[in-house]
Amino acid sequence: MAVSRRSAALGIIGAAASTAALALLLTPAVAGGAPPMTAAAAAALTGSCSATAHVDSQWYGGEVVTVTITNTSANAATTWAATWTLATGQQVVSAWNASVTTTGGTTTAVNASYNGALQPGASTTFGMQLSGPAVAPTVSCTDDAPGSSTGADVTVTEADSGRTVTLQVGQTIAVNLPSQYLPPTAGTNLVQLTSTGGYPSGQPVAAVFRAVVPGPVDITTHTDAACLHDPRPCTIPIRLWQVHIIVADVPSTGQTVTLTQVDTTRLLSLHVGDLLVVKLSSMYRPLELSNPGLLLLRDTTGGYPTGQPLTARYTAAIPGRTDLSTVTDNACLHQPTPCPTPQVAWSVHITVTA
User: Is Signal one of the keywords UniProt gives this record (predicted)?
Assistant: First the structure.
């Protein structure tokens, strides 16, 4: 059924029908069928797969994208998850063959009940309709194929409230709490990778954060209950939970790599501690990472719409793979009758080694 709906949607696009009509034909962003993988399994996924996004159709105000997930491990996988950062103004309207959620600008797709199992070298696909700027997403993925390390660098539970934890930029911390707690939140020094459960879902809290900026930050939450929101609330005490995080910087190697517009699509290898400098023209939007935390943003200036050349500096933080990308923009593209100026994408594929 999902395939036929997608085919119908593409036919409507070809006939220049409205985006609203298209949305009615597509399946919801959270696909039907069995529930996706558990929070614990999603948090444990660490590698062994690749993701490729293909734009099937674009129009002013949206696009339809198909993402191919391939198991690159020598072992079979039973579950997978894909993540990417939405462009400014983008939203996921609907999706098929995966369960898709967005938290804080980071979108995660996890396999459906029927397409999670992948033999070595096998592939599957999921699709989605995006509204907003027609910018192709840069997607990364992880799966549970044996041979990868599992779990976060540090795990904290209800008993760790008040504890101070030191993380180096790029490391991860998992938060596991009972179901009566709200999903935890943190400052901008940490980026949230996954979050499931918590009040009022009835499921235990399972969240994973990655350290991305040096400095102190807290992860916080508190308990909640339905009776606390009644006209005459109950007297159940609210329990606060907080862990203090100190994010340590990455030691520098002293090596600097500089990229410009001519380096688009380049395959780049960096070592942890290397400095990466990107210099682009003023037409480009701020840069985005497909795998937040692998590169630590030191500073960025210029870019659209400032009228100044775009310059950004990053430090390679942890081993892994990520794409660094952007696209040109123009004020006339945002007018009621947009100009026909084409947008030019820029991206590099980066591998960071220890």
Answer: yes
What residues does each domain of the chain span?
A: 2-143, 154-248, 256-353
Q: What is the pLDDT of residues 251-265, one digit of tens each?
A: 889 999 999 999 999
- 54-110 confidence digits (pLDDT tens): 888 888 888 999 999 887 766 677 888 888 888 888 889 999 999 888 876 678 889
Tell me the DSSP string of 19-72.
HHHHHHHSPPSB-SSS----HHHHHH--BSEEEEEEEEEEETTEEEEEEEEEE-
**Equal fold, 2-143 vs 256-353:** yes
Instruction: Report cis status (omega within 30 of 0) of the bond before 200.
Output: yes
48 or 268, higher pLDDT: 268
Residue 43 pLDDT greater than 60, yes or no: no
What are the phi and psi torsion angles at 196 (to 5°)? -140, 160
Q: Which residues contact 138 (CB under 8 A, 6 or more apart)?
A: 53, 84, 85, 288, 290, 323, 325, 347
What is residue 45's predicted lDDT score, i.e. its pLDDT?
54
Q: How many helices (H) and strands (E) does the chain have?
A: 3, 24
Phi, psi of 156 (to 5 degrees): -120, 150
CB atoms within 10 A of CB 11: 12
Residue type, 296: L
How far is residue 150's CA from residue 168's CA, in Å, rounded to a whole number? 18
The CATH code that applies to domain 2-143 is: 2.60.40.290
Q: Give first-to-last CA distance, the chain, whole Å.
A: 46
- Mean pLDDT across 158-181: 89
What does residue 119 show for φ and ψ, rounded to 5 degrees? -75, 165
163: CB partners within 8 A, 6+ apart: 156, 243, 244
Query: 276 with 295: CB under 8 angstroms?
Result: yes
Rounded to an integer, what distance in angstroms lies between the CA atom of residue 350 and that of residue 288? Answer: 13
Q: Which fold has domain 154-248?
A: Immunoglobulin-like (2.60.40)
Whether residue 192 is predicted with pLDDT greater than 80 in this model: the reply is yes
256-353 has which CATH code?
2.60.40.2020
